Amino acid sequence: MGGMFSGPLTWQNAIVWILASVVLLFLVLGFVTYAIYFERKILGWAQARHGPNRVGPFGLLQTVADVAKVLMKEDIMPKNADRALFILAPFLAFVPAFTVLATIPFTGWAYFADLNVGLLYYVALSSITTLGILLGGWASNNKYALLGGMRSAAQMISYEIPLVISVVGVVLLSGSLNMSKIVDGQEGWFWNWNIVPQFLGFVVFMIAAFAELNRTPFDLPEAESELVAGYFVEYSGFRWAMYMLTEYVYMFAIAALTTVLFLGGWHAPAPFLEFIPGIVWFLLKFAFVVFFIIWTRATLPRMRVDQLMGFGWKVLLPLALANVFLTAVWLEIFN
Amino acid sequence: MAIRTEELLLNVGPQHPSTHGVLRVVVKLDGEVITEATPVIGYLHRGTEKLAENLNYTQIIPYTDRMDYVSAMTNNYVLCHTVEKMMGIEVPERAEFLRLIVMELQRIASHQVWWGTYLLDIGSLSPFLYAFRDREIIINLFNELCGARLTYNYMRVGGVKWDAPEGWIDKVKDFVKYMKGRLEVYDRLVTGNEIFLARVKGVGKYDAQTAIDYGLSGANLRCTGVAWDLRKTQPYSLYDRFEFDVATAEEGDCWARYKVRLEEIRQSLRILEQALEQFPPEGEIMGKVPRVVRPPEGEYYAAIESPRGEIGCYIVSKGKAEPYRLKFRRPSFVNLQVLPKLLVGETMTNLVTILGSIDIVLGEVDC
């Protein structure tokens, strides 16, 4: 796949590529469908109840039924909403969520773009989503939505910075922004994974990622108990589904990124286990990260806006910077 | 060009996930900071007190269930207790024990609802379901006793309507044991959580003088260090027979109220343990009450400690079967009055934290 990107553009190449993208789109949609199911099941078990178990065997078709319901819902637009922006916003949020997946290498051969600046591409595109959320909150012409949108903008911008700086350590270690190269640098035993030498960076990255995802304990933009639903309070039907989709696709993206950057990507934890296909290892690690994100939701309360901002700027950012400094000093002394 | 700013007038409620019913708070926001807050109440007003003037005393009891619907047993009790005092009716010991046991179970159930919904306000999902699962046991116990899960209509002037079924007392004993373990789970899940502590410490703070000035009662008063609990300070029922402590805290903030309420569950379990040991194996459940309850002419006020504070019943009788005037002192209504004072200068997020910590039930606020 990667070879095609550098090869000449022919009809054959283009068709294969488009087909592969469609396959990925359906894979992601399938993931979202079952991520929601997975989340509801785990939350159910964590909270001493069953979770969905009525539609289909073990409730497996619950999300399908929900999506069908959402599609049939009336699409309500508030009278005083800014029509153009109101329609545009959910797509502005969703499109970057999907495009960032292009640079993530799932195995040694399954990836779309082997960009030299893959990591930078991810970070740059993902910040566009904030715009979609802010616009949605603004265009709804609703006070709760506006407050939610503002919070979201403030939060995502403040956490973007520690997120980016926390991965600088990884980049320093592997000497590349190319995701495949980063994974290749982690081959062998599991202590070669970046999570070990870059533990501080990993912790900062995970916390900032939660904030980027708007997930508990940082789900302030949609803080149900105070802002009703936050920025998408006026959205209904399929536009609402787009926002939900965005959230889950980002969960997919962040879990994949964590696996690639810190958990050794498709490599086995020990060399003698390499006979198991890389995609299995990738999916296992990936699923663990997703589980961790959901598990946190079942356990923690929500932070307060001012505490969140303070935590981002006064704790996470200095830690991320210290991590960069320590990594640089380490590399200078030992290499 | 100068940037124009203006205050945002926001209607929180009456349809809002965190106003615990149909409370409406009109807040003026400067950014996210509240500059003014006005609670608007009355959306659930049903005129209980006026209706009572045309009902005889037994008929009023079901209406009291619907005031503080999270704690119906204590409401039942305050009405029956007041009428009994007016008429000098002796309540048989077994009936009084049953009343005390259900009231303490109700206090636990009420605090569980509070604990769960408060954590839900703060953004944690799981405690709500944990609390409701444990509360379900109490609800089932009540169901066995009187056939209702929420509005019990259990007590009567002079006693209780139904005796405890066989094995009921043992089930309550099992519950007390179980609940002690559950409290540790509650603590592990929430009490030590740093995020939770950061959300509640120092928020919604007031001192003892303010609390007394506003007439606060219950955990809202005890969180400032005032050890005022009607079960201890003006003992009614059989509370003077049992050993328990008045739960207090010093800080006067949301954290203190949280601690006080959890401690009250512990103390209630202590009372229950003793009461279940001393429970008379047999006896009457209704005292000698005339067929038509006609309190003598006069005015009378009696108050008890409900989970939310001092609930009082003031009856003016003209010697008829119906009260001439009946007034309930509802703790939720009185406690709510301190809200505007606490909210000024706080953020939207703290509005929810503070409102939740006062623990109001709208059925009781609006009556």
Describe this structure as you would to a colleague.
The complex is a heterodimer of chains A (335) and B (367). The radius of gyration of chain A is 20 Å and the shape is globular. Chain A has helices spanning 2-6, 11-46, 62-72, 83-99, 118-126, 128-139, 143-166, 168-174, 179-184, 199-213, 224-227, 237-262, 278-299, 305-334. Chain A has one domain (79-334). Chain A has 335 residues and is mainly α. The two termini of chain A are 34 Å apart. Helices cover 67% and strands 0% of the residues of chain A. By secondary structure, chain B is an alpha+beta fold. Chain B has helices at 48-52, 57-65, 72-87, 93-122, 126-146, 168-191, 194-200, 208-213, 219-222, 230-233, 254-278, 331-336, 339-343, 348-358, 362-366; strands at 8-12, 24-30, 33-40, 155-156, 159-160, 298-306, 309-317, 325-329. In chain B, the strands form three sheets. Chain B has a three-stranded antiparallel β-sheet. Chain A binds chain B through residues 43, 46-49, 143-144, 147, 216-217, 219-220, 223-228, 297-307, and chain B through 8, 10, 16-18, 32, 119-126, 129-130, 133, 189-190, 193, 195-196, 198-199, 347-352.
